[in-house]
TrEMBL record:
Domain of life, per lineage: Bacteria
Protein name: GAF domain-containing protein
Pfam families reported for this sequence: GAF_2
InterPro entries: GAF, Phosphatase_reg/MetRdx
Stretch forming the signal peptide: none
Residue ranges constituting the GAF domain according to the UniProt record: 54-152
Length: 170
């Protein structure tokens, strides 16, 4: 059971550490990949302030396909090298975008989104998808959060067999 009592008193680093601790507990107690990814997006959305979307896209048939998320309905498919998510998957690099409206090729799945943080999911040199966080606030995401969400994906990699959810690309 997740207890968020007192979280409003935590600073950014404390919240991010708490998020990683809760994720570890979830992953350690459940083996189903879909259940874990679903709860991972719920944990992010519950703990991280200022988000309007948190979730996953997975590689299938050469494009990113929507996975479990929290927020309003989103784009079902994103082509590689398209938008922030497609760029993260193609370049294999975290994308921290202060203003998505200035990002070349931005895909406005939700017109309320103004900033974005996308972490590629790479395991054994295969891109399996991305973790995508959107916010209605400009300049919402920090380097600290980018670092912690990279750790978040590393933790997922430790427990999840991504082949259950995606085909991946090399």
């Amino acid at each position: 059971m997740v207890n968020l009592k007192g979280i409003e008193k935590m600073n950014e680093k404390q919240r991010l550490n708490y998020l990683l601790m809760l994720l570890e507990g979830q992953l350690d107690s459940e083996k189903d990949a879909l259940a874990n990814i679903s709860n991972a997006s719920a944990l992010i959305y519950a703990i991280i302030d200022g988000l309007n979307w948190a979730g996953f896209y997975f590689m299938k048939d050469g494009e990113l396909v929507l996975g479990p998320f929290q927020g309003l309905p989103a784009c079902n498919r994103i082509k590689l090298n398209s938008g922030v998510c497609g760029s993260a998957a193609t370049t294999r690099k975290t994308q921290l975008v202060p203003n998505v409206h200035e990002f070349p090729g931005h895909i406005p799945c939700d017109s309320a989104s103004n900033s974005e943080l996308v972490i590629p999911i790479i395991k054994d040199d295969i891109v399996y998808g991305v973790l995508d966080l959107d916010s209605p606030e400009l300049n919402r995401f920090t380097e600290l959060e980018a670092n912690y969400f990279e750790k978040f994906v590393e933790k997922l990699n430790k427990y999840i067999d991504w082949k259950e959810l995606t085909y991946g690309i090399k």
